[in-house]
Design a protein that fits this description.
Length: 215
Amino acid sequence: MPLTLYYHPLASYCHKVLIALYENETPFTPHLVDLGDPEARAKFAALWPLAKMPVLRDEAKDRTVPESSIIIEYLEQHYPGPAPLIPADPDLARHARFGDRFFDIYVHTPMQKVVEDRLRPEGRKDPHGVEQAMAALRQAYGMIDRQMAASRWAMGESFSMADCAAAPALFYADKLLPLGGHPNAAAYFERLRQRPSFARVLREAEPYFAMFPQA
């Protein structure tokens, strides 16, 4: 098969792309990258010098496609399936892309700040930065809670690329700052967890969850 996804089962941005692939049952070959292995890192960097996952390689078109949102756009254009993740209507498409960016920037980014701080050695931590990240998450949670009071998915009744971004971002953010105080957001997250595509991603990632840094 022409598509190969370079990924790691624990990586949240990889989850985002896996959800999109599973939603449309798009055939692909998974290639697990161990960045802790110098040889594996070197081979991956030869493909994509920044060595950031995920990366999609399309041998049929001789294209290397990095970045989760761009990969989903690429799949929608070149390998469309029965469950479109970007609406055909330009206004709705823009709304879906905004939702994608919202979850990446305002949930995913502060979540990663907290996780990365937990991996820092003593004496190198950034408590002020963590405090700011947690405040950003609380603000985002409030906005999600208000939106989900009258919506099933980020785009209403249709599952979209925004939900692909929301699922892993909220999954890891909830471990740092539980969603329980925001009932609509928590209910949305539970719907995401029950979605077959994301449930599959979580099953596949389960053996690696012990690597997630605890408080």
